[in-house]
Recover the amino acids of this structure.
């Protein structure tokens, strides 16, 4: 931090998110009424940029798939004499059925429509798609509105991944399109609630199940794939999961496809209902805990896209971490992951609020800036706009944040983005911690259950002031451990930009 900025912060108000990550609006029209009015519909004239998918082609060119069923190319001409942008819109493709993802691959774009994964190719170089090629299909669609399909996103091995929502309360003619004689009596179309992978040979494989509304997916720096889910029946609160073969996550209605050819899950005979989540994990062999829980309202209400910061430091001090969109609160959260005993777990942190509408899609440009695709269609969100596109840049100044939170046998190791004040950081009174878990049940969501305040016995500051080891009494596996470090100050005397962290402790490391 520069001396001038440090002096300014110390003498005035503490710095804010906007000081480090200003939001630039490319398109975010005013709502005809308040953005949270679910009855508001976009006007028919102009481009309603309800972003369903997004691919960044360069720092100044973005491809956008919109809910209306079109793909648009946006060229951003920055006007040096002002902060405004001249944006040129060009329609690349149309006639799609609610595309909810967009990927640039070689000379084409790939999107997932409701009934297929489609390649869009411009054969004569006029920026208009001439060829619409089906790459994959075969999942069921009953006609229920909630049967969204998302993707694709690439992993680190050349495979393309997609996710499928379950239907909600199918009835009437929809029931004629469900899996016949499904196990456990569940009523869903084929592969609803599953994660699917298209391999390099063009074969589509069902990989994992138990999804409710998996609207975001993305790979980490190791090339492993993750998805987010949203609170609802069987899903206690928002969550981030490591997708891998044979894993089951939450929602049992996805098991309607368990006996179909290609299923990676078998022999589930009974679903526990109304038990603490740790007990469900222990008794239900197929059930895999999330890598990260997002405590409801504290860390969002409806998690969306997953984006790896692959900028090498161009987006600030969080390179290699994941950023997760948030719909209802029009925000972005940050996630640090580590492996303990071969399985992912980690912490989520607040990062940036104040976007113009629901954050649905995230994509990073070569310069490290993050394009943020907005749409609140179907659900209400904070903000003043119904849809739009914004861009988030790093100012170049480093915020005072908890950069990582790692589990230890007797507590946690915190690392910070800038050195801490050794006096406040070594004071156990600067920290508070509690733990809690959730119910696994068929009801909608869950309150935090079995809460307990934890004793922080010591706080040992490293010689360089960049880390603190907390010894904590009362750690519990399969619980969220919520940290409040409100008393810690930087060497400049500033508080943390975000004082809270939420660590999902699935396993306590042995050493």
């Amino acid at each position: 931090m520069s001396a001038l900025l440090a002096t300014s912060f110390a003498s005035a108000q503490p710095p804010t998110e906007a000081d480090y990550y200003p939001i630039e609006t490319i398109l975010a029209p005013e709502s005809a009424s308040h953005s949270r009015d679910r009855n508001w519909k976009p006007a028919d004239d102009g481009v309603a940029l309800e972003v369903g998918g997004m691919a960044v082609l360069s720092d100044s060119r973005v491809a956008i798939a919109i809910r209306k069923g079109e793909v648009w190319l946006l060229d951003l001409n920055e006007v040096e004499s002002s902060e405004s942008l001249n944006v040129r819109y060009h329609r690349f493709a149309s006639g799609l059925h609610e595309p909810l993802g967009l990927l640039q691959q070689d000379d084409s774009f790939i999107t997932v429509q409701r009934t297929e994964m489609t390649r869009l190719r411009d054969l004569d170089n006029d920026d208009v798609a001439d060829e619409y090629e089906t790459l994959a299909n075969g999942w069921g669609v009953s006609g229920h509105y909630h049967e969204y399909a998302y993707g694709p996103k690439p992993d680190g091995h050349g495979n393309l991944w997609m996710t499928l929502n379950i239907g909600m309360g199918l009835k009437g003619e929809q029931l004629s399109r469900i899996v016949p004689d499904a196990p456990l009596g569940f009523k869903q179309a084929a592969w609803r609630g599953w994660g699917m992978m298209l391999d390099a040979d063009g074969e589509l494989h069902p990989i994992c199940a138990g999804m409710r509304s998996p609207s975001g997916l993305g790979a980490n720096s190791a090339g492993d794939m993750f998805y987010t889910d949203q609170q609802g029946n069987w899903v206690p609160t928002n969550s981030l999961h490591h997708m891998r073969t044979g894993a089951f996550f939450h929602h049992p209605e996805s098991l309607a496809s368990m006996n179909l050819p290609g299923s990676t899950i078998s022999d589930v005979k009974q679903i526990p209902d109304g038990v603490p989540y740790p007990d469900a994990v222990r008794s239900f062999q197929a059930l895999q805990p999330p890598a990260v829980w997002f405590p409801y309202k504290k860390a969002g209400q409806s998690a969306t896209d997953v984006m790896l910061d692959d900028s090498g430091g161009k987006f600030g001090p969080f390179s290699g971490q994941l950023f997760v969109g948030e719909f209802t609160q029009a925000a972005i959260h940050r996630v640090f992951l580590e492996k303990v005993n071969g399985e992912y777990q980690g912490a989520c942190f607040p990062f940036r609020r104040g976007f113009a509408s629901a954050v649905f899609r995230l994509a990073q440009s070569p310069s490290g800036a993050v394009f943020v695709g907005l749409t609140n269609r179907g659900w209400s969100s904070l903000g003043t706009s119904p849809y739009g596109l914004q861009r988030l840049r790093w100012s170049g100044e480093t915020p005072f944040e908890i950069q990582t939170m790692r589990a230890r046998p007797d507590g946690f190791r915190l690392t910070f983005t800038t050195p801490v004040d050794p006096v406040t950081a070594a004071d156990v009174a600067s920290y508070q911690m509690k733990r809690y878990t959730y119910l696994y049940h068929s009801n909608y969501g869950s309150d935090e259950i079995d809460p307990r305040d934890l004793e922080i016995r010591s706080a040992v500051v490293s010689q360089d002031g960049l880390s603190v080891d907390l010894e904590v009494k009362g750690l519990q596996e399969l619980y969220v451990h919520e940290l409040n470090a409100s008393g810690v100050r930087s060497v400049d005397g500033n508080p943390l930009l975000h004082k809270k962290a939420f660590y999902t402790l699935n396993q306590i490391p042995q050493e």
User: Anything to note?
Assistant: The chain has four helices and 33 strands.
